[in-house]
Amino acid sequence: MSAMAATTTDSAARQAAEAELDRQLQDGAHQIVMDATRHPVDRSSFPVARLPNGVSLVQFWRLDAPKLQFLEFEFDAPAGRRVDYADPVSQQLMTEMLAVRRLDAGSLSALLSRIRSRLLAAYGPGKGGFMAAMLMARVNQAVERPEDFPALLSDAELLAAYGISEKMAKSFGRGGFVFAGATGGPPVAREVAQRMAWSLPRWLENVGKAMSSEAILPVAMGSGTISWIISSGHDHFADRKQTYKEEMIRRNMAIP
């Protein structure tokens, strides 16, 4: 195959991938998958996230400059360079990302490629590369940890996540520890609990692991430290519960 023919074939493949991505952003991929509650669902039935009132795309995806927080880390924007996601190019990409859970593997790859190519073309390898890395990280987070963005959850997932957050908050409020209040209950609650390690702040997860081993013993910790851990855990899950509740109210779902 000549170089020109190969280029033409590659271009046609890219155009086809782009067209399929646009279709799936609109209609979703009709593919049966398992949701967080371990029930089979049609991927196209996952909601296209709607922004809560007063929340911008930048805020929804947590891309506020100058500090950007994701996947348990914080990154400063490049020194002396203000990153602004308010332009039409990045706004369109972030809008498309709201349907990320509806995409199959091929269209997800096409979306990541679109993010990179459009931002690099608009801003160059420096600023554009940084912005692309941030958006691609958010796509990854939305796929692997959709509970971080309640608007991305199906109704069943949202209901289950709300219930387990309530159990966790009550557990900490009674002086329980980490997963104590989430190990029982119906199968759906247990399944979601197993997937909710993401919802623990990294510091709290590490303390929980340490206290469940012989690394440290509770008696070796001051009562003030233990009280702070319990209080922080309660506040964390109470905040999660409220976030889920607000999304349920937005969808006109009954609050249990």
Automatic annotation (TrEMBL):
Q: What is this protein called?
A: Uncharacterized protein
The UniProt annotation puts the region (Disordered) at 1-20
Q: List all Low complexity biased stretches.
A: 1-13
